[in-house]
Amino acid sequence: MDAPDLLAVRAAVLAASVTVARVTQPYRVRGRRAPAPAGQLDEAWTTVVSTLSAEAPHLILGGRSSGARVACRTARALGAAGVVALAFPLHPPGRPDRSRADELDTGVPTLVVNGDRDPFGMPEPGPGIDLCVRPGERHDLRRDPAAVGTAVLAWLVRHGWAVPSL
After folding, report:
1. What are the structural domains of the chain?
2. Do residues 5 and 148 make contact, with C-beta atoms less than 8 angstroms apart?
3. Mind spelling out the 3-state secondary structure of 83-131?
4. Phi, psi of 118 (to 5 degrees)
5. 66-78 vs 38-53: helix crossing angle, rounded to 10
6. DSSP assigned state of 74
7. Which long-range contacts (CB under 8 A, 24 or more apart) does 10-14 make?
8. Distance separating alpha carbons of residues 69 and 38, to the nearest angstrom
């Protein structure tokens, strides 16, 4: 919730008059560090987003790492217009044979922002998937969080979901 890249994205899009809701997964609320099984994460996310989505003219889902996977997996069912996936973990470190690339098939425009030194791997751009590679960044995207926010805002503007901030 308080990762520098998430906070930078929040600041950038709020400045462009985009409404933002941050969601803490129940396992984190309970003080656990390891994510719950995917089905539980998706169910909790779906419950929260379903409550909020009636208020959103263009629902853009987003998250970082495990949260990016949840946003991707639930985008279609929730009627999202787009997905922002920060530090998408393509595979467990050192295990490229366990690719999660299929989760990026969201059916909606998807922006992936990853560091070129991320041990979780880097997805490939493709139909519907824009890739923003942050040079020198690892999985935490901490070196230049403001640039991450700028990249996300530019993508939202390009799709007409935000107006450039002055």
Report:
1. 4-158 (3.40.50.1820)
2. yes
3. EEEECCCCCCCCCCCCCCHHHHCCCCCEEEEEECCCCCCCCCCECCEEE
4. -75, 120
5. 50
6. H
7. 10/149, 11/149, 12/146, 12/149, 12/150, 12/152, 12/153, 12/165, 13/149, 13/152, 13/153, 13/156, 13/162
8. 9
Rounded CA-CA distance 150/33 in Å is 29
Task: Return phi, psi of residue 52, to 5°.
Answer: -85, -30
| 58, two tokens | 């263009």
pLDDT along the chain (166 residues), means of 10: 91 88 78 78 87 76 93 94 96 94 96 97 94 96 96 95 79
